[in-house]
Write a structure and sequence with these properties.
Elements (H helix, E strand, L loop, with lengths): L7 E8 L2 H9 L1 H7 L5 E4 L9 E10 L2 E14 L4 E9 L7 E12 L25 H7 L19 E12 L2 H33 L3 H32 L5 H7 L8 H19 L6 H21 L10 H16 L23
Antiparallel strand pairs: 1-7, 2-3, 3-4, 4-5, 5-6, 6-7
Keywords: Membrane, Transmembrane, Transmembrane helix
Organism: Paenibacillus lycopersici
InterPro entries: DoxX-like
C-alpha cells in the first residue's frame, strides 16, 4: 500500500490449462489483445537469464497522445503446489503521466491449492508486481505453448482445471493533492473496473474461444444500441408528451375518438411519464431478454394504435411506424449481443485469504 491508498485488487476463476493462461498473460503479443489498460507491450533484450525481464508499455489516451513507460518483471513457478507468481515494478517519466511509479503482481493458483505462502494482497519480498515475467523457468513453461500458423497458442476451450487468477497493484501519482484527488475519485475506480473487465474478457477468450477484439466490438455495439434505445424512449416521453404536448401528441390522442377530450391531456402526460420511465429502467436491464421482448411488443402496439387512429400519419416523415421499427431494430441488436459480454462485476475486488469462490 502506497501513501495510505487502497491497492487495486482483482480476482477471477478461469477454467483453462495453466500453460495456456500463463502464455496469454506472459507473452506481449497475446497480453496486449485482452488487457484494455495497454495499447502496446514489448519486451527488451535481457542481459542474462538471471536478470529481470525489462519491458516497455504504452497506452493511447486520445487526441494523438500516448502514455509510455518502462518496467521490470520476474516470475516464480512452484510446480509442486501448482502455483505461479509474476511480479513487476513500472513507471513513467513523462510529465503528463498521472502514474509516476508502481508495483504489483499476478498470482496463479489451481483450485484446491493454497498456492505460495504469500496471502492475497502481499507480493513477494521484492514488493514487485503484476505483469509479464520471463525467468528461465517461465521460458521452459512456455515451450508447450508454441504458436501455430496463426501466431497464437491453441485455445483451451474451457478444458483444464479451475485456476484462481489474481492481481494486486498500486502506484504513486504526480500533480500533488490535485493528482491524488483525481486518482482517488475517478482514475483509480475506473482503472480497477477496466482491469476487472479485461480479466473477464481473458476468461471468455480461454474458456469459450472468443477473441478479445470480437468481444470489444460486440460490447460497443451492445452498449451503443442500448444507450440509443434508452435515449429514444426518454426523448419520446419528455419532448412531445410532457414538455410540448400541444405539438401533435394531444391532437393524436383526441383523434382516437373513444377517449374523452377532458382526459386526453392527462393521458398524454401519463404516457410520456411511462415512456421516460421505460427508457430509464432499460439502462440497468439492458441484458434482460423479457424486458427487451416486452419493449418490442409495446413499440409494435403503440405504432399500430397510432396508425389505426390516424392512417395519414404513415405518409408523414418520421412517422410513428418508422420510429417504432427503428427502435425494434435496436431492441433486436441489444438482444442478440447481450450474451458472452465481459462483465467487471464477475470478478472479486477484495482479497480473500481462504480463496473462496468468485
Amino acid at each position: 500500500m502506497m501513501d495510505g491508498r487502497k491497492p487495486i485488487y482483482v480476482e477471477t476463476t478461469i477454467r483453462a490449462d495453466m500453460e495456456a493462461l500463463w502464455a496469454h498473460t506472459q507473452r506481449p503479443e497475446l497480453h496486449r489483445q485482452w488487457d484494455l489498460r495497454f495499447s502496446d507491450i514489448a519486451y527488451l533484450p535481457r542481459t542474462s537469464s538471471e536478470a529481470p525481464q525489462g519491458f516497455t508499455y504504452s497506452t493511447r489516451i486520445g487526441f494523438g497522445l500516448r502514455i509510455a513507460g518502462t518496467g521490470e518483471t520476474r516470475s516464480r513457478i512452484a510446480s509442486k503446489r501448482n502455483a505461479r507468481l509474476s511480479t513487476l515494478v513500472f513507471g513513467s517519466r513523462q510529465p503528463w503521466s498521472l502514474i509516476r511509479t508502481g508495483a504489483g503482481y499476478w498470482k496463479y493458483t489451481e483450485a484446491g491449492e493454497s498456492g505460495s505462502r504469500e496471502t492475497p494482497g502481499q507480493p513477494e519480498q521484492s514488493g514487485q508486481p503484476e505483469q509479464p515475467g520471463k525467468s528461465e523457468q517461465a521460458e521452459q513453461a512456455e515451450k508447450p505453448e508454441q504458436p501455430g500458423r496463426s501466431g497464437q497458442p491453441e485455445q483451451s476451450g474451457g478444458a483444464g482445471r479451475e485456476i484462481r487468477f489474481a492481481t494486486q497493484y498500486d502506484y504513486r501519482t504526480r500533480f500533488g493533492w490535485t493528482g491524488a484527488a483525481f486518482d482517488r475519485w475517478l482514475f483509480r475506480p475506473l482503472f480497477g473496473w477496466v482491469t476487472a473487465w479485461s480479466f473477464d474478457a481473458l476468461r471468455i477468450w480461454l474458456e469459450d474461444g472468443i477473441p478479445p477484439r470480437m468481444l470489444v466490438r460486440q460490447a460497443l455495439i451492445h452498449y451503443g444500441c442500448a444507450a440509443a434505445l434508452a435515449l429514444l424512449w426518454i426523448g419520446q416521453g419528455l419532448l412531445p408528451k410532457l414538455l410540448f404536448p400541444g405539438h401533435g401528441e394531444l391532437a393524436l390522442m383526441q383523434e382516437v375518438g373513444w377517449i374523452p377530450d377532458r382526459w386526453a391531456p392527462l393521458l398524454v402526460k401519463l404516457l410520456g411519464a411511462a415512456e421516460a420511465g421505460i427508457g430509464i429502467a432499460s439502462l440497468p436491464l439492458h441484458r434482460s431478454r423479457p424486458v427487451l421482448l416486452l419493449q418490442m411488443l409495446l413499440l409494435a402496439a403503440m405504432a399500430l394504435a397510432a396508425a389505426a387512429a390516424s392512417p395519414g400519419l404513415l405518409a408523414t416523415p418520421y412517422n410513428p411506424a418508422a420510429l417504432a421499427l427503428g427502435m425494434i431494430a435496436l431492441c433486436f441488436a441489444v438482444l442478440h449481443t447481450r450474451l458472452d459480454l465481459p462483465q467487471a462485476r464477475r470478478c472479486r475486488r477484495t482479497p480473500n485469504r481462504s480463496y473462496g469462490g468468485r
